Amino acid sequence: MKCRLILLLLCIACATVWMTGPALADEAVVLPGEPEATILPVPTHLPGEGTSYYDIYTNVDGAAISFDGEYQGVTTGGILSVPVHTTGTPYSVVSAVKTGYNPTQRTLPPVPPEGEHTSVYLTLNPLKPVSGTLSVSSSPSGAAVYVNNVYYGITPQTVPGLTPGNHLVQITHSGYEPWSQTVGVTAGQIITVMAVLTPKQDQGTLTVRSNPSGAAIYLDSIYYGITPKTISGLVPGLHDLELTKAGYEDSVMRVRIYTDQVTTVSKSLKKISYPSTGSVQVTSNPAYASVFVNGVYYGDTKPETPLIVSGLAPGSYSVKATLTGYNDAVTSVVVNAGAATPVSFSLTPLSPDVAVASLRVTSAPSGAQVYLDNVLAGATPVTVPNIPPGVHEVRVTLTGYLEHRSSVDLSAGETASIDVNLDPAPEQSPTGIPAIIISFAICSIVLSCIFRRDKSR
Description:
By secondary structure, the protein is mostly beta strands. Helices cover about 10% and strands about 50% of the residues.
């Protein structure tokens, strides 16, 4: 009778072990006769534990928050409340990342009591700018501005997007000596440059009038505008002067320029009874663009003054304007006899050189941590800017999923994209099986003892 009672109790124990085996898989199991049991680690964050909260404050919205590298969410309104269990292994470090800002982190304070909140403050500082700006002016104004031999317009002029370091600034103005200076540019700052120009010495002046007015003036084959016009800063000596106007005969003469004197020329133009040629009047924004008609250079445009190309036979012509630092502009025009055809160009700047690249990383599911060259860059979806060109290592991690690794070769000015489909981590084998095997072994030993005892009787 006693043996049967022992057998019943052991069977109940075995059934209990069978039912609770998975729950006890991570607890210590003590077999009869063992002096000590092996204590297995207790998992953190067991269901049903008490909950408290860390309130994470950031100075900017949209910052991705992580605890010990585990993504927790994004701040909204400058705050993210993260629930944690009051027991189990506490987190150590909180970090915040956002595109355009330097990542930051700090040590978490102790876990607050159940149901209570603890505030944690993180400050993200903007990334430092990578280029500077020049603000160029001159006395007198209206001078041409060149930076590193590239034309940027006339003074006053702002030149942005310059790399930090020394740059050569050159200023030129008709009638004045050229001015140049090496200027240091600092990232994120506007450097002011003021050029006081010196008038050229040993120069003369020419005043040209015509009847009717509006005739194009060419001095030594260089266009200077239309009559009436005063031209200063000329080299003393003999010069060839030509006046042209649609519907009138060209007038060609030689004039002498004297030092520090004004030479005046007045000319009555002879009208053509039956004009056989026409002209085009070319303007550009900005000015000082070189003008070509059917591939032949005819001069440069001036501010608020058209460049007149006369003596053109009636028909179609290709007109092109070129200027350093700007895209070429080309158009087709029809020239009629005795008429002036207006042509206006609006030049577009060339795209500046880009010395860095960007990388956009997305994942399914989102919220994965992105490491670029083993440096945390944020949580997906994220765009990482200001990356030097070349090959870079990309690592994407998310709790419960297999880690993704790849490399990307970036070129200057490129914005590349990586889309990652994360694979779930494989499930672990059931942990309750050893307890079941132990239970069956105990039952087998006890039944064997009872069987031997009954047999002996």
